[in-house]
Specification:
Radius of gyration: 24 Å
Structural class: mainly alpha
Order of helices and strands: HHHH
Largest sheet: none
Shape: elongated
Length: 105
């Protein structure tokens, strides 16, 4: 059980690092905040609900997280395609061609 938690932790950290590369510190603090809130909520309802209700809640949260992940991947792919399109449409630099043999800075 511990192995899968550690594996998931590495994957989620890698996802946060790739999506929020500009602002990693805020992204990781936000991740730890929601991680802690999730553990607190699970601890809070653990004594009052039966196992079937807990499984339904965990399954719904899992499906919601998976949907969020696929939305984030689609948005990142769209953003990456936009950056690649900018490179394709950009005018190539010809500054080295325009210089004469004696023109050096």
């Amino acid at each position: 059980m511990y192995y899968w938690r550690k594996y998931f932790l590495y994957l989620s950290v890698a996802l946060y690092a790739s999506v929020f590369a500009e602002n990693c510190e805020a992204a990781f603090s936000n991740y730890r905040l929601w991680d802690s809130i999730g553990f607190l909520m699970a601890f809070g309802y653990s004594a009052s609900l039966c196992t079937e209700s807990k499984l339904i809640i965990v399954t719904c949260v899992l499906l919601l997280g998976m949907c969020g992940y696929f939305i984030a991947e689609a948005m990142e792919r769209k953003k990456r395609k936009g950056r690649q399109g900018d490179r394709v449409n950009a005018k190539p630099s010809t500054s080295h061609v325009d210089r004469k043999a004696g023109d050096f800075p």
